[in-house]
Amino acid sequence: MLSSQDTLTFSLLALKEARKVLVQDFIEENPEIYRPMFQYEKSNTQMMLAKEKHIITWLDSHWNLIEKNLNQELDSTVHNEFRYSFAEIFLRLLKKFDTDRRVRSSPLAIRLLKPKIDNLEKLLDLGDRHDNRINKLLYDSDRHKRIFERKFAELKGE
Amino acid sequence: MKFLDMFDKLDDIIYKPIELITDWAREPIKARDHKRKEQSADNELKRDIERKTAEQKIASKIKMKEREKEADIEVKKETEVVRILTEIQEWKKDQEFNRMKAVSEAISKYQKKLMQLNVNAVNDIGHMQIELREKAQNLVYEKTIKYKDLQRTATKEAMEDLKNVEIDFSDNEAAKKILNEAIEDRLKNIINVAANFLEELNDDIRSINKNITLLAESGHRFVEEHLTHFQDLGFSAEEIKKLKEAGEVEVKVIDQE
User: Tens of pLDDT along A45-81?
Assistant: First the structure.
């Protein structure tokens, strides 16, 4: 049995570590954050997607962090107990990031984090893929134009 | 002593007739005696028989009374057994009833909680689905515009070039032909490739949308897990099925709202 004191301590520790990671990423100019910011400079939708994906991944990472702090000797029932208590705290954190205040979150929201990240990634991949194609088309178009202009000049010069 | 012996014989001679007479005199007495003896033997027999009959009568009376009493006891025993059995049945029914009451109370409490859970879960999932679909839609729109822009620009440039060719090579049919063909090919190429990519874009988005729809599965799984908790509480499979059906009814109701 974890005392409520211990639960609180472990929870606060986990939250603190997560915050540390977040700040550290910005200070060290982690490319994972910064590359999308430049890459999607022109595309608002993709920028928003990348931002949201990052935040939700960060929120999800809390659950990995709590494992680190729990003493490995404690058996699985205690682990589960703690996860259950932490879930309530975590839900409150989630609510702060919820853009739509009208929504009343259920504990299901925690379960939905991973699928959400998954789908955001898919969307970003899709965006990247089509960006590449558009770029290729632009390059093709330019190439053909140049070649045409050369030919034009050539025929004109005769 | 012979003298005495003579007397002995005299005894016999004298007394014999006397003996005879006395015997004959005694005869009626003997007869009466005999009669009396017979009578008394008769009487005794009678008495014996009477006694025995009486004894038998009494014995049978006793036996009858015994049997009556036995039957009485049997009946009483039976009644008692029946009474006890009925009591036990009643008691069992009471317990069943109380248990049923507890179960149905638990079911209604569970229904309420489940409804709440379902409402929130459906809310969450629906909300997330809407958000994701909106983002997907925006992305698709953005890329579509880019492709279409590409096509439009290519067409415009092609027109320009055609005009220029017409102006500069109005006299040179051969050159015109070469250049026009080049322009046409170029345009066709870009339009087709862009069109293909647009189709792929639509396919991609359709599969992502399908993915988003499948998110509803998480909700169902989530609720299912709560049902397994009830198994741990010792509810029978029957009762759990009832609970599940009750829950699904609630979900249907919510879906229809």
Answer: 999 999 999 999 999 998 888 877 766 656 777 778 8
Q: How many CB pairs below 8 Å do chains A and B form together?
A: 118
DSSP chain B: -HHHHHHHHHHHHHHHHHHHHHHHHHHHHHHHHHHHHHHHHHHHHHHHHHHHHHHHHHHHHHHHHHHHHHHHHHHHHHHHHHHHHHHHHHHHHHHHHHHHHHHHHHHHHHHHHHHHHHHHHHHHHHHHHHHHHHHHHHHHHHHHHHHHHHHHHHHHHHHHHHHHHHHHTSS-HHHHHHHHHHHHHHHHHHHHHHHHHHHHHHHHHHHHHHHHHHTHHHHHHHHHHHHHHHHHTT--HHHHHHHHHHHHHHHHHHHH-
Q: Does A106 contact B197 at a Cβ distance shorter than 8 Å?
A: no
Interface test with B, best of A126, A142, A143, A149 (most B CBs within 10 A): A126
pTM of this prediction?
0.64
Question: For an interface test with B, which of A114, A138, A144 has the most B Cβ atoms less than 10 Å from its Cβ?
Answer: A144
Residues of B in contact with A144 (CB under 8 A): 186, 189-190
**Interchain pair A123, B208: CB under 8 A:** yes
Between the alpha carbon of residue A70 and those of residues A14, A15, A64, A75, the distances in Å are 10, 14, 11, 10
Closest approach of B256 to chain A, Cα-based (Å): 20
Hey, is the C-beta of B229 within 8 angstroms of any chain A C-beta? no
Q: For the complex shown, is ipTM > 0.85?
A: no
